[in-house]
Amino acid sequence: MNAIEQLKIQSGVIVRKSTIPLAIIISFGFLFFACNEMQNPVSELPVIESFAIPGASAIGVNDTEPVTIQDFKITFKGNSYDPVANTSTFKYTVTRNSSASGFNYMAFEIPECAAGDYAGHTPSESSSVTDNEIRWTSSIGTGSSRTHTVTYNGKKTTGMIDATIQGSGSGDIQTELIPGPCKGVYSISGTVYVDEDGSGGRDDSREGGIDNVTVRLDVNDKVATQKTSSNGTYTFNIYIGGEETGFTLSVPEKTADITDFNELLYDTYTPTEGDGGISDNISSPNLTGNNFGFEPKTDEIIQKFDDGNEIRLKTEVPSFWANEIKFADKGRRTVFIKSELENFLDKIDELDLTYKFNFGTDVDERLKKAEEILTLKRRSTELEVLRANLLAAKLNVVSGNGAFDENDNVLTDFNLIILKTGSAAAVTLDPPSTSGFSLMMNSTTYETHTFTTTSSSTKSSGDLLLSFNGGGGGLGSN
Question: Which CATH number fits domain 67-181: 3.40.50.720, 2.40.50.100, 2.60.40.10, 3.40.50.300?
Answer without folding.
Answer: 2.60.40.10
